[in-house]
Amino acid sequence: MIDTKTAPYAALILRVVTGVLFLIHGLVKLFVFTPAGTAGYFQSIGLPGWLGYATMLIEIIGGLALILGVGTRLVALVMVPVMLGAALFGHAGNGFTFSNPGGGWEYPVMWAFVMAAIAALGDGAYALKPLGRKSAD
C-alpha cells in the first residue's frame, strides 16, 4: 500500500538526488574531460562524437530540471535510454559488477530503472510547474 502522505517526499528525494548526480556527471564531462574529450571518447567506442555532446547536455540540463522538478516525467524517460546506452556501449564488456575495471553494466542499468520509476512516480513535493501542465501531480 502506498502512503499518500509520505510518497510525494520520497519522490522528491529520488528526484533531487538523481538530478544532482546527473548534473555532476555532466559537469565532469564539461570541465574535466572537456566537450572535445567526451566526443572523442564516444568516437573511440564506435559512437558518433555528437552523441557525447548530446549526452553531456542531457545530463546537465536534465539534472537541473530534475532538481527543480520541471518536466520530471519527460526528463526521467529521456534518461532511460541514456543510461541503457551507457550500460551497452560503455560498460557491457566489463562484466556485471561496477567495481570491475572500467565499471560493469549493473550500475547504469540500475539507474535506468530508477529513472523509469521516477517517470512513473512523477514530480513529488516541491516541484516547479511541470512542462505542459497547469498544476503539479
TrEMBL record:
Question: Does the record carry Cell membrane as a key word?
Answer: yes
Answer whether the UniProt record assigns the keyword Aminoacyl-tRNA synthetase to this protein: no
Query: What species was this sequence derived from?
Result: Pseudooceanicola sediminis
Q: Which compartments is it annotated to reside in? A: Cell membrane
> TM spans, by residue?
12-33, 45-67, 74-97, 109-128
Task: Just give the chief location class.
Answer: membrane
Q: What is this protein called?
A: DoxX family protein
GO cellular component annotations of the record: plasma membrane
Q: Which keywords label this protein?
A: Cell membrane, Membrane, Transmembrane, Transmembrane helix
Q: How does it sit in the membrane?
A: Multi-pass membrane protein
PANTHER family documented for this protein:
INNER MEMBRANE PROTEIN YPHA-RELATED, OXIDOREDUCTASE CATD-RELATED
Q: Which family does it belong to?
A: Belongs to the DoxX family.
